[in-house]
Amino acid sequence: xxxxxxxxxxxxxxxxxxxxxxxxxxxxxxxxxxxxxxxxxxxxxxxxxxxxxxxxxxxxxxxxxxxxxxxxxxxxxxxxxxxxxxxxxxxxxxxxxxxxxxxxxxxxxxxxxxxxxxxxxxxxxxxxxxxxxxxxxxxxxxxxxxxxxxxxxxxxxxxxxxxxxxxxxxxxxxxxxxxxxxxxxxxxxxxxxxxxxxxxxxxxxxxxxxxxxxxxxxxxxxxxxxxxxxxxxxxxxxxxxxxxxxxxxxxxxxxxxxxxxxxxxxxxxxxxxxxxxxxxxxxxxxxxxxxxxxxxxxxxxxxxxxxxxxxxxxxxxxxxxxxxxxxxxxxxxxxxxxxxxxxxxxxxxxxxxxxxxxxxxxxxxxxxxxxxxxxxxx
Length: 378
Known about the structure:
Elements: H1 2-13, H2 46-56, E1 69-77, E2 92-95, E3 101-108, E4 118-126, E5 138-142, E6 159-169, E7 172-181, E8 184-192, E9 208-209, E10 219-225, E11 228-234, E12 243-248, E13 259-263, E14 270-272, E15 284-292, E16 295-302, E17 307-313, E18 326-330, E19 338-343, E20 352-359, E21 367-374
Antiparallel strand pairs: 1-21, 2-3, 3-4, 4-5, 6-7, 7-8, 8-9, 10-11, 11-12, 12-13, 13-14, 15-16, 16-17, 17-18, 19-20, 20-21
């Protein structure tokens, strides 16, 4: 283009066009290509980008004041969208530690107990992105027609088999399953949880009759902390006190390795590998024990006070001690016939999300699960 402009200028001036030499710039040496990162190595600034994206996301989960408890309403069972996926009436719905699936108890296709098809336990898949929101959602269900577990329920009147607590060890989610007749336990076993499909197989060697450990291992919860797993246990029929166990993480599925925390002799000292001693004088039902921000957090149904309660301690051995601070999540006045009380994965001490069940036994409904958020800081 520059040469043509020069020729036109020369013609207008009446002189012969003179072509100027055009200098050719030397090409700059190309920058060496950045080598592809090795497998497992994140690209530069990847972590910063992820953190920025996370900060940009605004959660709709309310922030309670210290000691405050907020009822966010029902998320499963009577009057909720889970009826569309076959769980019109359901309870428990403890969300496994991986945060992908809720373990529902006796579930009915209709809007209450005894309405529609009865499934003895069901898995409700958590809708991605809703776990730590103000309204947890479920996008599909599995284990219908009592197929959640590979083993069948007791084929007797009122026979069922129900989830009775979860523990995660080395990233694997386990559940204790209790077989019952009219909610009285007959035996228990461990199963490995699959977040997307049913037919969960039993862990070999984990079966125990209901009277194992004097009936005090028919309902459990726990967590792994380093090389140890800590397990809190009571009775499925809500007629036992809390006992505490620990075992090597590598041996968790061998229930013979669960050794108790108890009083040494006549006391007053306590220690591990003792005969189990009750952590307090109350009777308990459903329990949830988790390690959150370095604290042992225990929630669940206190069958003595008839309330869902939460406790926080620096040491797991003190989590249910009489002097440990307690926050009441639900009373019989605030939620009639409440029970359950499971911690939702991802909870923090100031935004502790807890699932509380409600079953109006006189009419069979509501039969549902409600979501609460509490600030356990004081």
